[in-house]
Amino acid sequence: MNNNKISQLRIDNNLTQSEMSEKLGINQSTLSQIESGKLKPSLKVLNKISNEFNVSVDWLISLDENPSVNPSNISNKNNNIDYWDTRDGKEASIVLM
Predict the structure, then answer these.
(1) Average confidence (pLDDT) per 10 residues, the chain, 97 residues
(2) In degrees rounded to 5, what are phi and psi of residue 92?
């Protein structure tokens, strides 16, 4: 997990921690701990960051160096994220809690 990516997204978008945490629906102290590396973000928070800033979760967790979301690879149904994993060519699904 690269916490610098999350803080860089915030800075690039001219947001304070308080403003970004409000957009994400989390406490400012939680965002601060995520940015400092003291707390790992939940999948739900990663998904919110991905949607809010149009970056992929793979990029956020450093599996992919391309930050762009490829909409053809992702669909969101009933709190599931179904996607095509380009690393192994298999369909995968993530259930959001």
Answers:
(1) 84 96 96 94 93 90 61 52 56 57
(2) -135, 165
